[in-house]
Structure formats: structure tokens, C-alpha cells
């Protein structure tokens, strides 16, 4: 999350003489304005709430369906389950960020670290799983005849070392630096780097974020799907054309969601390094666009169930079967309760009839 997106009402003319506020203003930068803070307070909770609802429904349905088809899960289904679990955990952090953006951080420090850790794990794991899905598709389509063993190894073993382990290791900065600061009565939850070399810490972790969050998985996704498109373009038939269309949609969705955010983040990082010079107007506009593009990038966790599951005919059938099973189970429970109630009433009436006679 971007630094200090929460409510900062204390930044007025009467408070700027305080040492704590001066330090905080220095951390935010000389161009920070209350206008940016007011924008974040309205925009971010609205978008986060919408993504939260869509993400819970979509990814929750995928997890439900995958749970019902344990025996018939393919290797691609296993990736989809990993992806939906990651996205589901990610959207669970959005209510906390919504409150933070609207009124500041009003939770304990433990929750501050926990929410940062969950956010980081699932942000990186989801994008790395997308890269693994593209590798799986590449092996299945381009090397269809002899890729079964490699695909199984990727899906059942390497996915943990290649996705979840790096994502967990990348939470170390959150465990070390994420904390709650009380600034003039307003609580802020964010990574607070050492003052003496704060800029170096910020730039270093920015480049790590850009590399692991976009560059490496983006190159894998782009390379694999470009080869897949080349392979499918020489094939004929309705199914091949449908697969080609789906592949193009997957690439466009990934880069449309994430590329604008990372472009803004990269420009801002170049500004921190002094490679680009901004006046205060440009600096404020850039930070506003970082907030907008980051929030819009989170829509990808809502699109994933549609792109990776709902486009498949098999998933639609499985979803219908799962929902039918759930509704039948609920109906049977209600029916059994009614029968139990009727039988008890019948027993009572019989008992009273016996005693009256």
C-alpha cells in the first residue's frame, strides 16, 4: 500500500510547529497537500469495498467448486485453487485499508503487522501463480506429448517453492518496519524506515516490488503466451480459435490491470533518485495517480475467477453441480427438521390422547 493513505486531519497551520508533525511532514515530502488526503479518504474506501464484495463472491465460489470436485481436479484446477485462496486472503485485508484511508488506523499494532504481511504474501503469490499458470499452459499446448511429468512436478511441488516461499520471505520488511505511529492523535500504520537512510530503504524496496511484482512474472507470462499464440495461430478448428481468444484476453487483462500502477510507481521512484524532476503540482498528481492505479490494479483479483474459471465450460458445469448439491443439502436439512417437528407433535398428541383415555 502507498505510504500514509489514511486520514491526516492534524496537518493544519496550527500544528506545523510541532517537532513530531515536522518529522511526519518530512516523511510525506514537501509537496504533500490535504487535497490528496481528502481524495484518498473518499476514493479508496469506495473502490476497496466494491472489490471486496466482488472478490469474496467470485473467489469464494471458485474455492467452493474446487472443494466439490476434489477427485476430478486437473493440474490447472490446482493452480486456480491456489490463486483463488491467495485472492480471497488478499481481499480480506481491504476492509482494514478502507478504514485506514477513511479515518486512520484504529487497530492494534499486531493487526498492523498482520494485515501488511497478509497483503504482501497474497499480492506476490497471486502474480507468481499467474506466471506458473502460463508455464503450465505453455507445457500443455506447445509440448503436449511429453509434458505430463513436468506439469505435475510444477503443480504439486515447485509451486510451493516458486510461489509461497518467495511471497513469505518478502514479508520480512513488513515484520521489521510495519508499525503504528501516533502523530498528533492520528494513528498511522505503515512501514517506517530508519530516518538516516529512509530514501535508500524506500528506493530499494520499490525496485524489489517492481521486479518481483511485475517484471519477472510479466516476462514469463508474456513469453509463454506469445509462444502459445504462435502455436495456436497455425492450428485450425473452433476449439483452437477459442483457446487463442482466451489467451489474448488473459494477457490483456493482466497488463491492463497492473501496468499503469507500476509505470506510475517507477516514475515516482526515478523522482526519488533525482533522475526526474517534478514541481509540486506534478508530484501531487503523480501520487494521486499511484493511488488510483493501485486501487484499479486490485480489480485483477476479481477478474481472475472470470478469466481462469468462468470462461471454461467445465467450470460452469461444476459450479452448477456444486450449487445444486448445496441447495439440496440445505433443503434436506430443512425437510428433516420439519419431519422431526411433525413427528414430535404427533408423539405429543398421541401421548395426550393416551392419558385422556
Describe the structure.
This protein is mainly α and 357 residues long. The chain has twelve helices and two strands; from the N terminus they run αααααααββααααα. 78% of the residues lie in helices and 3% in strands. The protein has a two-stranded antiparallel sheet with strand order 1-2.
CATH class descriptor name of one domain: Mainly Alpha
Rounded to the nearest angstrom, the distance between the terminal CA atoms is: 77 Å
Cα-atom Rg, whole angstroms?
A: 26 Å
Give a count of the beta strands, DSSP E runs of length 2 or more.
Answer: 2
List keywords for this structure.
single chain, 357 residues, mainly alpha, Rhopdopsin 7-helix transmembrane proteins, two-stranded antiparallel sheet, 2 strands, 3% strand, disordered N terminus, disordered C terminus, glycoprotein
How do the helices and strands line up, and which of them pair or pack?
Layout: H1 19-28, H2 34-68, H3 75-92, H4 94-103, H5 109-142, H6 148-169, H7 172-177, E1 178-183, E2 186-191, H8 198-233, H9 238-272, H10 280-297, H11 300-310, H12 313-356
Antiparallel strand pairs: 1-2
InterPro entries: CCR1-9-like, Chemokine_CXCR4_N_dom, Chemokine_rcpt, CXCR4/ACKR2, GPCR_Rhodpsn, GPCR_Rhodpsn_7TM
GO molecular function: C-C chemokine binding; C-C chemokine receptor activity
Subcellular location: Cell membrane; Early endosome; Late endosome; Lysosome
